[in-house]
What we know:
Elements lengths: L2 H18 L6 H8 L3 H7 L3 H24 L8 H11 L6 H10 L5 H11 L9 H19 L6 H21 L2
Helix pairs in contact: 1-2, 1-4, 1-6, 2-3, 4-5, 4-7, 5-8, 5-9, 8-9
Amino acid sequence: MRESKRTVILDAAAGVIESEGITAVTFDSVAAAAGITRGGIIYHFPSREELIAAIHEHMARRWEDQLEAACGKPADQSTATERLIAYISMAATPATRAEVQMILDSHHTENQDVWDQVLQRWAPRPQPSDGPSYTLALLAADGLWVNDVIGSTRIPPEQRHDTAERIIDLIRDTDRSAP
């Protein structure tokens, strides 16, 4: 299958999730959103499970591409602090309903690994040796990122950016005070 056709299908599926939720993902709904026949979707994704797995991979890859852009280089060429700052910077852009639903859907399934790999590269879960500033920065960034999807009050873009910068300052201050 040509990559462009695959991208059209997966982007359309993400759009269905964004507007109607993950339970609305059917061959018919994705076909209608992509402008492709139901048979065309089934040809490329023989089961709904294969389609859902591909959506997970597609969205996680897109998320990692955005993290690389925020960092200016791939995770394996970045320091731990650069990766964390990129992750926090990404929190200034609100999560989409589709991203949150797919991450939640992945827990305790075979699809969790694709998201965990991205998180392990960019913002590994805190270890006891990381100290409280690292944990606080991760929690604050995660909260900022999902706020607009789960919160009752949307944060204006400028305030989101300023908040992310304050979280980044916490990490930079910790780095400067490290021995």
